[in-house]
Structures are given as structure tokens and as C-alpha cells.
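Suppose a colleague, Dr. K., hands you the sequence of a protein chain of 391 amino acids and asks what its three-dimensional shape might be. Before reaching for any lab equipment, you can write down a predicted structure in C-alpha cell form. Begin with the sequence itself:
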Amino acid sequence: MKSDVSSLMKPSVVAIKQQEIFKFNARAKSIPGSINMTVGEPNFTTPEHIKQAAIKAIEENKTHYTVPEGDHQLLSAVAKYLHDKYNLNYDPATQIIATTGVTEGVFSAFNAILQPGDEVLIPSPSFTIYGPDADFNGASPVYLDTSKTGFKVTPETLKEVLRTNPRIRIFLLNYPSNPTGVSYTEDELQALADILRGRDVFVISDEIYSELTYNFKHVSFGNILPDQTILMNGLSKSHAMTGWRFGVVCGPAAIISQINKIHELATTSITSITQYAALEAYQNGYDDPEVMRKQYQSRRDSLYEGLKEMGFECPTPDGAFYLFVKIPSGYEQDDVKFANELLEEEHLAILPGSFFGIGGEGHLRLSYAASMENIAKCLSKIEHFLKNHKN
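The predicted structure, expressed as C-alpha cells, is then:
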């Protein structure tokens, strides 16, 4: 065997780089006493009734394989929840799969759809898994810079990029957005759908933050363009269940049946205990997200106003739990250098915006999935840092 074993591996895998977010977080964790405002997960615990449902399942030895798409009672509960919350109408027998989080859902959908030479349209800045997932399948990510349009895709820019890139097979839409927190109104979504309708383009709509929407009611793209939309959602953010790894993929039966083939190969089925916890969340956890959402909104407002007073600019987040702020003029605009020096000098970890792709340069992402105490400390540390670094 060759000494360089990587030369024997799949080139598209070898080409994938470790995500900068993970490397930066590892550095932050190595600094004692550092305050971490990078974390993309709730700082709440899973609601007690959900944990108890999982414990009961273990005690009753419900620890065996389930069918690959997910327990049918669970899928029925998912369908009812999505209908009650968002007026979505999915047949639990043919149009829903339970996946190992949205991450696996996106991976399985990309693998089922993409062929070498295809393109994936990704509004940027964006969450960091989408581009590598496209590369892995021999497709090319097409990044659409949204920094000049309020971090939203406009009908005009969408129409133009589809015209100039005829091999786009997937439009990846994530809202409320990680990293910017912006979302779309129903009218804005309808305008995008008017451009997409009838094209041979799948819309993968990652709506994992749908329950954490502040300024207006969340409208699902699955309602706007149902025949072309593959909806991704789950419980990680809404019910503080990141470690349970539960997601759902929903869409037309002809699409879901093909994605399920990849899902079977990747996982066989997700853990039975997670499914019993998810069943409890979907049946009896309707109000769980609201308790968290109200606290996130208070934290958002506190962090937003504090940063605004220091000269940072950003859109008011419509949802999720992130601020994506522009470094004020008069200070170092290299966001990676800014974040590294802030970590070294103030022991405060926030992420460089350029980690999230085109349009993120000169920005920083802060997570307000943190205590009010840490938000206050964060603002104090940034204020002190700015005083020492003004050009």
C-alpha cells in the first residue's frame, strides 16, 4: 500500500477541509475562563417531560430497530404538528422521513439529487455544511452574495443567477438564517416562488429555526411551492434537543422515496430512544419553544442595543439566535484578525463572518444562546477591546 494513503481515497473527500468554526472553537475551549459566544445551540435543557419519555422507553426495553423512515406513530405526530403550526399537509406514510438531524437530511437529499456537473445555489453568508455537501457529490456550489440586499435573496438576483447558471439543480434556502438571523415574509417567499415555479430546480428549505421567529409568523416554503420543495426541520433548536439528533425531511412522495434510499444506506434508522423522545415533543411539547423564544428575544434586544451603541451595524434578526454585525469603521476590518485578537486579549470568542463565506468579510457572528450575565460580560469585553484598538 502507498505511504500516502490519502492518494487512494476519494478525491472529493480528501479535498474537504476541516471547518474553520470547529478549529476556532477548539482554541476558545483551550483558554481557561473564556466566554464563548460562538455556540449554535440552545443553552436550555431538554424539557423534563421529553427526557422522562426517553427514560420510560429505555425502561420498557424499546431499544430495537425501527423502520428506516421512522416509527409510523411518530411520523403521524410530526405531520399533525407541522399542520397545526404551519398549515402544512404531509402524508406521514409517504412524505416524511425521520433523520439524524437536519445535517443528515441535507446530506441524504444532496446525494439523492446531485450528479457531477450540477450546481447548487447557496445564498451567502451561509451555514458551512452546504458547500462541502455539494462538492462531495461532484457538484459545484454557486454562492450568491446577499450582503448588499439585507442578507436576503431578491427576485431580481434569483432570476439572473438562474439565467446565467442553467445547471443549478438545487436552491438551498435557510431561514431564519444561520448566521444572519434574517427571515422572509410570505410576500417575499411568494416572489421567489414565482421565479422558481416550473423550473427543474429543487428547493431545499432548511427551516430548523422556524419556531424561533420574532418579528412575524413563520411561513414555510413547503406551503408556497409544495411540488418542488424539500422541507428540513427538527427539534434541535425548538426543543433544545441538539444532542438527540432528530430531524425530519418532508416533500412530495416521489422525492421522499428516493431520499429514503440514501437515508437507509447511511443510518438504517435513527435511534429508537430519540424517536420516543421526539414523539413526546411533537405530541405534548407544542408550547415548549415559546418559553425559550421569549427569553431569546430579550437577549437579542439586549445584545443588539449594546452593540449598536458601540457603532456596530446589523439587520435586526427576525429569528434564530445570532447577530451578524459589521465591524465599525475606524477599526481593523480583517474579521479573522479581529476575532483572534479579541479571543487572545479579552478571552471572548465570537466567530469571524468570513467563515460563513462570500459577503461575510468584515463581519462577526455572535450567538445570544447565552445567559444575560454572559451577554453583559461580552458587551463589556468588546467595549474594552474597542478602546484599545481604534485606528
